[in-house]
Amino acid sequence: MLDENALIEDNIFDNLPIYRYRILFWVVLVFIAAIFLQFLEEVIYVQTVFFTMLMILHLTLHSFSGSFKNNYAWFYFFLQCTIIFVSAFIMPHGAPAVLLGLLPILIAQSIHIFNHSLKVIFAVVLLYLPYSYAISVNYGIQELPFFIPILFFIMAIAVFYSILYVRQANAWRRMQYYLYELQMANQKIEDLTIVSERKRIARDLHDTLAQGLAGLIMRLEAIDIHLQNENTDRAKEIVQESMSQARETLQDAREAIDNLRSDSVTELNFVHDVEKEILKFTEAISIEVNRSFESLPPLSSLIKQHCIYVIGECLMNIAKHAQATNVSISICCKKAESIIIKIEDNGVGLNTSKIGKQVGHYGLIGLNERVRILNGEIDIKSEKGKGTRVFVKIPLTGSKKKDEK
């Protein structure tokens, strides 16, 4: 993850090409002005060659100023000062252009290189002294009152422009940083959406195909037992029931696929579908279910769908593992605020500490996920030999819909 402060405080001048182009343009103008002023008074070719080399070195150091920002800032400052003052002395008549053109730029840059008021003031004093000396040598000390105000005037303009430009550059770079953060956030949301969809598909596969196939296996096992006992009539009945269940499982799978493809959930008749789950259960293991259904307020499709899957999963677990002889289901509404589902059996019980830890056993994991989606609570209590009790409480408002989007 990028650090905003590091991004903003990085050397602006070294990373913005438009600034370097302007510096290049300005130094070229200073170079031309210095040669023009010098050649008006005296033509000196050798010094001009050295002056040209110094200006090239000056621009090169500007290009790599970011490398000097931390540990070598004073070294960079000293090198640039040396280049400017040597250039002023070898081009005596062009010295005003060199000094007044390059020193303010260096001072403006020192604000961002040193990033400390005392250091900048110290740098200005260091530049002021040799500047005064250079003017005195080339033009006489009597010209200082004329050149010093010009220096400070140009320096003020350069510093003001530099601060304004850097603020704009910082704003641009903040925008780049926040754009990057936004892209990362969008990518994370997309990844979470994919994970949520995978979990949703896994739940639907488990609640349709896996449960349906488990029921068919139980019926086939019953058929095998009846055939071994030469009870062919009962075996044929179970075969017919199995064919019917297989068709229902196929239909449920198709409905699950349609729900995944569609943007909305089909309205469900809650009590009717609960009765269908109970019928599947009683046909599979021939145990009557004691049920108690109170009058319920209108339920959302999301609550209906997940509650039916929760009830179906609990009944399937009882059929497969509980070896129960008595099963009861109660559904009621508490103060029109939440729906309460209780499912109890008198089977062999289970070890609740292993819930969600056994590889290949995803039903109870799916229960917790579905209840969490509805912002509800689930409590599973069980003891060996004393059966199992599942308590589910679902609020009628505030259900989470993010996993269904």
From TrEMBL:
Membrane-spanning intervals of the chain: 21-37, 43-61, 73-91, 97-114, 121-141, 147-166
The UniProt record lists the keyword Mitochondrion: no
Every Histidine kinase domain range: 204-398
Keyword list, A-Z: ATP-binding, Coiled coil, Kinase, Membrane, Nucleotide-binding, Transferase, Transmembrane, Transmembrane helix, Two-component regulatory system
Reaction(s) the record says it catalyses: ATP + protein L-histidine = ADP + protein N-phospho-L-histidine
A cellular-component GO term for this protein: membrane
Keyword flag Transmembrane helix: yes
Record-linked Pfam families: HATPase_c, HisKA_3
Entry GO MF terms: ATP binding; phosphorelay sensor kinase activity; protein dimerization activity
Residues in coiled coil: 236-263
Enzyme Commission number(s) of this protein: 2.7.13.3
Highest taxon, organism lineage: Bacteria
Protein name: histidine kinase
Species of provenance: Salipaludibacillus neizhouensis
Lineage, top ranks: Bacteria, Bacillati, Bacillota, Bacilli, Bacillales
